[in-house]
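Good day; I would like, with your permission, to put a structural problem before you. What I wish to show you is a protein chain and, alongside it, a tokenised description of its three-dimensional fold. Here, with my thanks, is the record as I have it:
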Amino acid sequence: MNDSLGRVAPSIIAIPPAPLPDWPQGWYVVGRSCEFKPGTVRNVTLADRDIVVFRTQSGVLGAVDAHCPHMGAHLVHGRVQGERLVCSLHCWRIACDGTIDEQSQRARGWTLRERFGLVMLELGNDRALPEAGTGDFDWTQVAPLDIGAGWHSLVANAFDMPHLRTVHLRELVVAPEVSFEPGRIFSLHYVSCVRGRGLSDRVMQWLSGDRIDVRVHCYGAITVVETDLGFTRTAACIGMTPTRNGTRLYAAFGVRRGRLRPLRLALTRWLFASFLRRDLGVVEGMRLKLPDDPILQRLFDFLRTLRPMPS
């Protein structure tokens, strides 16, 4: 006699992981310092927020919501007078922090920092400010580049160990180590040697004694790469700002100060740019799928700990 009474074995329901945040709270690069001369007013769009960034005559950077709180005129049409951004419609004078002369109303202000020759704006608050190199580093930058791929793909590429061999022709000497602080920073450390025979490969092999100590740090939409070549140290700060069609990439490259400064800085820029160019050549047009890779899975787990900007 069947006494099962029609019982059905319980099924295991697979709960999909939370999606990666499109706009996590944190720091975003909005331009290079050289693009913001005194008197400059520029419009940027972050997480569907219209923001105006300007530099006062004394060199202080300010960022406020793009529409004047009086009647909504777009402040990109305003002009800088002294230390104020002056609205073009009724000449309301707005300070860098959003306060307005002789008015109780104020514009929403945003926090800015200049690091490595890049201008960074903070969406949200209490996020780790990217660190790269030390105080004795010199920095150079390249013009921004638009990439037809999401910033998640670019971040994943920086932590993808198998592609280090297939794309960059490098082999691991010391196994990678991962550490991260949820909501703040994800770090990877590894040591590699060069197996490529291109010009940049041979130069890097000669400079490093074929032992490149690398530390990669993800802060969200900004990634920092630090390399120890034995006789010197270099660094790169890569800002990935989402756009409607992909990602706008900003890059700054630094080297520890020493003799032959211009030559060493130019060489550092060329080597990092050569490495980055290989990545961008294969990432363009990528539609990211989450692979069965333990390091990338931990990276994605970290990205899910970043608080998204509220809509």
